[in-house]
Amino acid sequence: MRGIILVVATAAVLIYPPFVAYTQNSQTVTEIASSGIEVPLAGCNAGSAASRDWAVIPDTTASSGTAIEHARATSTEAAETLAICPSAPLKNGDVSLRFKALSGASDEGGGLALRMATPKDYYLVKIDALRDRALLLVVKDGVAEEIVGVDADVAADVWHTLAVRVQDERFTVYLDGAWIFTGYDKTLPHAGRIALWAEPGSVTRFDRIAAEPVPKPQSWR
């Protein structure tokens, strides 16, 4: 990832045991995937520098017939890994997207950046198709710190659905309709932009991005 020089582990996480996955029921996943305002693919960019690595391309397997693709033949520090979307700043909310990591590149991975204050300060839900891992990281001043990482079955050349519900310090993550982990962190408490993220050296496509704020329950008011 551009600008990231250190990755360390932290204990600021709670991973529920497998039986809790049943309480994170399919209704919640359906709510996240079906709700929200769709974000135009063409609007997700980071200015002229990003245009070298990101482009909207035809893809008959995408829901709208087009996808936004990150393409970087080699893993270099110059690679632009973020495409910032023009959504309103979001603190608590549901965000979902479809992604497909193409095989044959030097790396295979994609993900979603949340609460982005700057391109060096954000949360990242990262899906690593090459290593079959799903992670939640916090990036502060360009330094990435792992909050939680779990094994996940992620095939290349296949569309996957990633859905995230963010509520204050809690991040609940679903992959292809199934809960995979819940992590906790308070480092970045404020609202921020969302962005697409791709592994440097990867060719990754994104489709059907949607976001919607989630109001606090009545009991919280």
Q: How many separate domains?
A: 1
What CATH calls the topology is Jelly Rolls
Task: Please count the helical segments.
Answer: 1
CATH class: Mainly Beta
Question: What's the SSE pattern?
Answer: EHEEEEEEEEEEEEEE
The description of the largest β-sheet is: 8 strands, antiparallel
Percent in helix:
under 10%
The tally of beta strands, per DSSP, is: 15
Tell me, briefly, the overall form.
globular
Structural class: mainly beta
Overall pLDDT level? 80
Q: At the fourth CATH level, what is the homologous superfamily?
A: Exo-inulinase, domain 1
Overall CATH architecture: Sandwich
Q: For the terminal residues, how far apart are their CA atoms?
A: 39 Å
- Report Rg: 16 Å
Strand content range: over 45%
| pLDDT < 50 stretches | 1-24
What would you note in describing this structure?
The protein has 221 residues and is mainly beta. It has one domain: Jelly Rolls (Sandwich), CATH 2.60.120. Helix content is 4%, strand content 46%. The strands form 2 sheets. Strands 2, 3, 4, 6, 11, 12, 13 and 15 form an 8-stranded antiparallel sheet that branches. A 7-stranded mixed sheet has the order 1-10-9-8-7-14-5, with no helix packed on it. Mean pLDDT is 80; it is low at 1-24.
Short description:
The chain is mainly beta. The protein is 4% helix and 46% strand.
Question: What characteristics describe this protein?
Answer:
single chain; 221 residues; mainly beta; Jelly Rolls; eight-stranded antiparallel sheet; 1 helix; disordered N terminus
Topology of helices and strands:
Blueprint: E1 7-9, H1 26-34, E2 37-39, E3 54-58, E4 66-71, E5 82-84, E6 93-101, E7 109-118, E8 121-128, E9 133-140, E10 143-151, E11 160-167, E12 170-175, E13 178-184, E14 193-198, E15 203-213
Parallel strand pairs: 1-10
Antiparallel strand pairs: 2-15, 3-4, 4-15, 5-14, 6-11, 6-15, 7-8, 7-14, 8-9, 9-10, 11-12, 12-13
